[in-house]
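Researcher: Let's do a round of design. I'm pasting the structure tokens now; please hold your answer until I've finished.
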């Protein structure tokens, strides 16, 4: 499997993925955007196939809720 990610347009951080299947392309695109983002950044990739609200029902749900709370506190503290 080829996991190369090519830059399509650096000005808007758009990327083009090749030969990726299923959710892999979304994870790789997200990793590329994360790498290009200015600091501070944080990327958490949760294992499994749950999406949306069902993520909160997984064994990482409490962690996810805590990360969101931290983000809100950080963003709204300024």
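Researcher: That's everything. Go ahead.
Model: Designed sequence:
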């Amino acid at each position: 499997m080829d996991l190369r990610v090519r830059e399509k347009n650096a000005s808007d951080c758009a990327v083009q993925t090749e030969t990726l299947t299923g959710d892999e392309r979304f994870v790789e695109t997200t990793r590329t955007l994360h790498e290009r983002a200015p600091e501070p950044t944080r990327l958490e990739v949760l294992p499994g196939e749950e999406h949306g609200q069902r993520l909160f029902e997984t064994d990482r749900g409490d962690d996810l809720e805590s990360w969101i709370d931290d983000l809100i506190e950080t963003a709204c503290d300024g």
